Amino acid sequence: MPESVPGAGYVLGALAVMFVVTVALRAAPFLALSALKNSAFVDFLGRTMPAGVMVILVMYTLRDVGESTWLPASVGLAGTIAVHLWRRNAALSTVVGTGLYLVASAFWT
């Protein structure tokens, strides 16, 4: 074998390190979850993150609204708000708002 090819010990050592790191990274969330189960901070994040994510998505959608895309964006946003106020279901309002935006985009752009 050429000298540039690493030996079996080197390869097995590298594989062992990769195995340990992979197992540790997969176990870390479960260990952290058990430690934070009764945390007030995690409870706060659980209550506020959905609204925060929706605000970020709205800002991302409306950041580059131009002359030809303001109407579809407005229709999608209004539909999302209306369905959410009516049904209080984030998944349903997201799907309906996205659908309205796509339909409006097909007709007005």
* Gap between N and C termini: 63 Å
Quickly count the domains: 2
**Shape descriptor:** elongated
Count of helices? Answer: 4
How many distinct beta strands? 0
What structural category arises from helix and sheet content? mainly alpha
InterPro entries: Brnchd-chn_aa_trnsp_AzlD
Keywords: Membrane, Transmembrane, Transmembrane helix
Organism: Rhodococcus gordoniae
Protein name: Branched-chain amino acid export protein small subunit
Keywords, separated by commas or semicolons:
109 residues; mainly alpha; 81% helix; elongated
Brief write-up:
The protein is an all-alpha fold.
Word description of this protein:
- This is Branched-chain amino acid export protein small subunit.
- The chain crosses the membrane at residues 12-32, 44-62, 68-86, 91-108.
- Pfam families: AzlD.
- The protein is mainly α.
- The chain folds into two domains: 1-36; 40-108, no CATH class.
- It is 81% helix and 0% strand.
- It has helices at 8-35, 40-62, 70-87, 90-108.
- Helix 3 packs antiparallel against helix 4.
- The longest helix is centred in the first third of the chain and has 28 residues, at 8-35.
- The radius of gyration is 24 Å and the shape is elongated.
